[in-house]
Structures are given as C-alpha cells and as structure tokens.
Amino acid sequence: MVGGLTKQKKQNVSNLSGEYQKQLKVRTEVNNAFKEARMEEMADEYVGYKNLQEGSSLYDAVLVGSDQVWTPLGLYSRFFNLQFVQNGIRRISYASSFGVCNIPWWQHHSTRKYLNAIDYLSVREIRAKEIVDDLSDKHAIVVADPTLLLAKDSWQELIKNCTPKTTGEYIFCYLLGKRQEIRDEIRRLSKNTKLKIVAIRHTDEYLEMDNTFGDEAPYDVDPFDFIKLIANAKYVCTDSFHCTVFSIIFQKQFLTFYRFKSSDGNSRNSRIDSLLNIFGLEERLFQCDIKTQMEKYIDYNEVQQKLDILRSQSLDFLKHAIEDEKC
C-alpha cells in the first residue's frame, strides 16, 4: 500500500518540501510498526540464488503468488517463476498474474518452459488463463485473489480496533496513476454530492497534481486503516485492483477507473476487466456521468453468490495442491 520510489524518484523527493518529507516519514513509521506487529517469518531466509536452490530441497512444496509475479520484466530472475526449485519438489502457483495482456514473442519459449514445470497452476485473471492455455501444455484455473479468501466478517474483525481517520460521510479515493482527468471527475462527484474527498496521496510516487487533491489526506494509515477507510466510505473511487477488491468485499458503491489509457502499450487494465467480469460488475468501470453511474444499484446478493462459489473452488484447489502426496 505504501508504494515504492525508484532511485531517481527518491532523489526528486529529497528536494521536495519539508512538509512532504515529514508526512512520508509518518507513513513509513506507521507501516513499519504494522509489519513488526502483524507479520511473522514463515520460512528461513536464503541469500543468493545457489542457497535458494539448495534450500528448496528442504520443503515438500514451494508456492508462488499472487499479484503480478510473472511480468515479462521478471522472467530472467528465475525467482517468481520457480525455476530455482529442485526437481521432485512440488511447485504450486496460486493466483499468479502476468500483469499484461500479452507476452512478448521472444519470451514464449522460456515462459512455456517454466509454466510446464509447475505442478498445480492457478491464475488470478481470465486473460492470464488464456495466456497459460495458449503458451503451455497446461490448463490454468482462475482462483480468487488471496484477499477474497477472507469473508467480510473476518475482515471486519481484523479492523474493528482501528481508530477512524475521518468522520462523517465521504468519498474515499485511492489513485495510483497519473491521469488528471480522473481527479477532475472525482472533484465533480464531490461537488454534485456535497461529500468531502478523503484521499491517499503519493503512493507509488510523488505526484505534484495530488498536493491539492482531496479535502483530507491522512498519512498515518497502515493496511488495516486503509481497509477501514474503504469499509466506512459512502463512495469509493479508485484505479487500484485491490481497492476494487475491498470495495466488493464490503459491498460499497464504487467506480473503478483505468490507470492507463487503453492505447497505452504498458496498460495493465486487463486485471481490472477480469475482476469486474468475474462478478458481473462491468458497469462499475467508469464511463461517463459519474454521479449517475456511482449511484446505480448493485445487486450484491448476486455478487456474493459468485464470490462464495469462487472462494470455495479456490480453497479446494489450494488444499489439494498443498496436501497431494502423489506429485
């Protein structure tokens, strides 16, 4: 949630105002505290590729997932594609994503090789399944993102002690992309509904346009605070996959925007398309007339039925892949 800054972007940030530096420090400290309190080490640490290879022999199975672990840029690391795992050790992919619509032709052979070596293969998006089915000898199944494996009640229990970061009704806004026109549309929604905008600014990188975006912009927000901001919102506007996921979990009135223009060669919009398609929520992708579209009725009983089926199928896949001793 905190986002990352490249070396160049860090250099730029160092020249920014002292106020932003202070806010960035607050965000970092809050999230580091969350990691310390909530995250546990689940396995030994292996430094270096050779040690990682040798370490894989100590396990019955090695699992990769989820998120954009199979982007073309990561192919040559031989890490997220499980090429380091020694023969005879079960390889499992859970809800892995390529993050792109197409694999470059010069990577087809290498992609086919690592996909064929995975014993249990599941992906997060419909387009990812199509890529696996086209490029390899395997057939992937589409499973739920791990965040969807927990029901709404379970998430509510996790966030119940979080101190609210705002009061009253509001539009929660979480944008990662750089499209000014999206911000303009959300301001229009705020004006038409007379609801304030609560925004999380400067997540993936510092964006000057966001300095004045949002009526409130808390920085002391850890992952559970982030979820609570979604859960308590009147409306949610986002270009984020996971913010969309939690909007669905908490049955919010939401709109999702494309982070990239459809003509952008770097577009990763297929993730959003697939998520909305799975739950029959294609109309939650922003089109026009933001207030009318935002307020349009969502049949969450139907959505919940689809989610329950997907969650059950996903847990069955995961259980079978982990427990199967025949592989």
How would you describe this structure in keywords?
327 residues, alpha/beta, four-stranded parallel sheet, 12 helices, 8 strands, 41% helix, 11% strand, disordered N terminus
In short:
The protein contains 12 helices and 8 strands. It has 327 residues and is of the alpha/beta class.
Describe the protein in words.
It is a single chain. The protein is of the alpha/beta class and 327 residues long. The protein has twelve helices and eight strands. The protein has helices spanning 7-14, 18-38, 49-56, 108-116, 126-135, 152-159, 180-193, 223-231, 241-249, 270-278, 290-295, 300-323; strands spanning 61-64, 90-96, 120-123, 141-142, 170-174, 196-200, 235-238, 253-256. The strands form two sheets. Strands 1-2-3-4 form a four-stranded parallel β-sheet. A four-stranded parallel β-sheet has the order 6-5-7-8, sandwiched between helices. 31% of the residues are buried.
Helix content: 40-55%
How do the SSEs run, as a string of H and E?
HHHEEHEHEHEHEHEHEHHH
Spans of at least 5 consecutive residues whose pLDDT stays below 50 are 1-11
Structural class: alpha/beta
Using DSSP, what is the number of strands?
A: 8
Query: What is the radius of gyration computed over CA atoms, rounded to a whole number of angstroms?
Result: 21 Å
Largest sheet: 4 strands, parallel
What is the distance, rounded to the nearest whole angstrom, between the alpha carbons of the first and last residues? 36 Å
| Fraction of residues in β-strands | 5-15%
